[in-house]
What does this fold into?
Amino acid sequence: MQDRFAVIGMGQFGYRVAKQLTSKGAEVLAIDKDMDRVEMIKDDVTYAVSLDSTDIKALGSQNLQDMDAVLVAIGENIEGLLLTTVLLLELNVKRIVARAMTAQQRIILEKLGVQEILSPEDEVGIMVAEMLINPTMKAFLQLPDDFEIAEIQVPRKIIGKNLDDIDLRESYSLQLVTIKRLYEEYSADKKTMVEHLVQTINRDTIIEGSDMLVVLGKSFHIQKFIELNS
It folds into this structure.
């Protein structure tokens, strides 16, 4: 099933994310109050509409609650950012990703209950698009020839299997770089969970539920691996 996203705010950041999501095969609705910006993006996304996202009736007419995620990429207009976010919460949008330009904006968004907040230092449109499409992907590095190194939360279906059973190379055309795993550590009788790299990895290594897999492969193969095993 095709992923469906809405991006509200067609500034430079929102524009890049919307285009990248579309290039990844997603269905994208681009929204901005400025008709000129809508005209600029309309040929690069599935749909583009001009509306005031602080108007509950206008926003509600777009069926945003049916989207996989809505990105609020409104820049300097703090009132527009916050009111739009509140209205999305009222519309029961299941996944809201908001962009905070300042520490104060981040605090307010957190108080509103927004779980995913982007800061200016996160603003790499390609990375955000990848994160929206694959929530289990925590980080990635784009390489030439459509290759990437991705850090993936272990998919549900491979938990408890060993690497020989999974056979990343033959079954998915992926190369395992390393595994990040949570280990119990004790200090002054206090237990904490600390992330370390698995030091010895072989075909008998069992995948655990808290593992993060770092893999190398083409974007398509990484996407396929996540979809088949989630």
User: Anything to note?
Assistant: The chain has nine helices and eleven strands. The chain has a mean pLDDT of 88. Residues 137 and 152 are 4 Å apart (CA to CA).
